[in-house]
Design goal:
This protein has 330 residues and is an alpha/beta fold. It has one domain: von Willebrand factor, type A domain (Rossmann fold, 3-Layer(aba) Sandwich), CATH 3.40.50. 37% of the residues lie in helices and 16% in strands. The protein has a 6-stranded mixed beta sheet, sandwiched between helices. A two-stranded parallel sheet has the order 1-6. The chain is globular, with a radius of gyration of 19 Å. About 5% of the residues have low confidence.
């Protein structure tokens, strides 16, 4: 996957067409809730992936593809944020290409829930460079579940990235892709064997820790967790501390989730260039003072310890940050 080119005009046209016809923007979710469909959409079902992987490959259109994964929490604690994100994230490609200047992004969208109680705890699309990105977004189920334990199964995003993806970016150029998760809760520290078997359609005999899976993921991916401070748990210091211990500076508090595209683009831009925070924000076209503060606040810690990703990292000596940043060990 990953051929073709993104068209903002085609995206806008599709949105207007659905509005004129009275069609839901997120048609598959509507079909699930009205009983017209059942189960994860086959294009997003991790148990039905061809050869068990999602591929990001170079093409004539995109000779140096850059894989980007965005998996967001669709449980009830996020309220209406997932619906807003679905509408907003369709613009991510436009911002990454036209403002951050990333020429060959291939973006995979997905959703995560709570594997202890949800019917659809992991949904993952394909790596796309064109308007099929919008299609996979509209096929995500907004389950609105969760079990009320202030923990969700974000670790399945790490397992997916570590063991169920293959990218030319890393295999050919030793260059890491980007993995962003977003939610407002803590993470279950262990994936249970029966959950793994059910979600990925493979036989698992024992549980797997998030710590171990993160270590595997960091071999090929730059990992961030965006914490929605406008979700249900902005004051759970224990939850914030657990994420900080796991990810260090890559745990990013987001006060306004509507700025998720700008924050993701800014973080990628920061690691793909040697530019200052002020220049990054300027290049992204942000002028509102509150937006500048929000996006800058997310980028500053990363810029302070970065080694630009344009330096191929797959086979290089350890050069990441220092101090207490757990990513400096990778």
């Amino acid at each position: 996957m990953g051929g073709g080119s993104w068209s903002s005009d085609a995206y806008t046209s599709g949105t207007r067409h659905r509005l004129a016809k009275g069609l839901a923007d997120f048609g598959y979710d509507q079909d699930i809730k009205t009983g017209k469909a059942s189960g994860i959409h086959p294009d997003l079902d991790p148990s039905k992936m061809k050869d068990g992987i999602r591929e990001s490959r170079d093409s004539a259109d995109h000779p140096e593809s850059l894989p980007i994964i965005m998996i967001f929490d669709v449980t009830g604690s996020m309220g209406r944020i997932p619906e807003m994100l679905q509408k907003k994230l369709a613009n991510l490609m436009d911002i990454v290409i036209s403002k951050a200047g990333i020429a060959n992004p291939q973006i995979l969208m997905g959703a995560v829930g709570d594997a202890t109680c949800d019917r659809y705890p992991l949904q993952v699309g394909q790596f796309e460079s064109d308007n099929r990105l919008d299609e996979q977004l509209r096929n995500i189920i907004l389950e609105g579940g969760g079990g009320g334990q202030v923990m969700e199964s974000y670790g399945f995003a790490y397992r997916f990235a570590a063991r169920h993806t293959a990218t030319d970016s890393f295999e050919k150029r030793g260059k890491k892709g980007y993995l962003f998760t977003m939610g407002d809760e803590g993470y279950w520290p262990v994936l249970q064997s029966e959950q793994i078997s059910a979600i990925f359609g493979e036989h698992a005999t024992e549980g797997e820790s998030v710590d171990m899976l993160l270590t595997e993921t960091l071999e090929q991916w730059e990992v961030f967790h965006l914490f929605a401070m406008d979700g249900s748990y902005p004051d759970r210091i224990d939850v914030h501390d657990s994420w900080s211990k796991l990810l260090g500076e890559r745990f990013v508090k987001v006060n306004d989730s509507s700025l998720v595209c700008e924050i993701i683009a800014g973080l990628i831009y920061a690691l793909e260039s040697a530019k200052s925070v002020d220049q990054i924000v300027t290049d992204l076209g942000i002028s509102d003072p509150s937006m500048i503060n929000e996006v800058s606040g997310a980028i500053v810690p990363v810029v302070a310890s970065r080694v630009p990703s344009h330096m191929a990292q797959g086979n290089l000596p350890e050069e990441h940050g220092t101090g207490n940043d757990p990513l400096s060990k990778v």
